[in-house]
Design goal:
With 115 residues, this protein is an alpha+beta fold. It contains 2 helices and 8 strands, in the order E-E-H-H-E-E-E-E-E-E. It comes from Lactobacillus iners DSM 13335.
Length: 115
């Protein structure tokens, strides 16, 4: 079972900061141009959208036969210990995942159970 997530912590902050720099550069190029549509804005906006979709599709945790694998956009699939549940708030579940010598904090959107 695959569960897609958004990763938090310093790794997530650095990764998403670089991703949003591309978006802000696209907006700046659009504001600074004298044309209605800027080619640089379209190219950078397309790169941002493709990068965002790639990030969302290739950030997942997978469970096969009680073995957990973590996949991040910039890492190969790695075997991890069982994710440690931290908290649940408004349908968001927060987990801590240990990989080799680093920790990742992830947020997974889950449906609320009635039980």
């Amino acid at each position: 079972m695959k569960k897609h997530f958004i990763f938090l912590g310093t790794n997530g902050l650095i990764y998403y900061s670089w991703l949003f720099i591309i978006l802000f550069m696209s907006i700046i190029f659009q504001q600074e141009t004298s044309k209605n549509i800027s080619l640089a804005c379209i190219v950078l906006g397309s790169i941002f959208i493709i990068s965002l979709i790639y990030t969302l599709l290739f950030s997942y945790i997978e469970c096969k036969n009680q073995t957990y694998f973590l996949k991040l956009p910039y890492l190969k699939k790695k075997r991890v210990f069982k994710p440690e549940f931290i908290n649940r708030y408004l349908g968001l579940s927060f987990y801590k995942v240990n990989v080799a010598n680093s920790n990742y904090f992830i947020v997974i959107v889950e449906k609320r159970s009635n039980a």
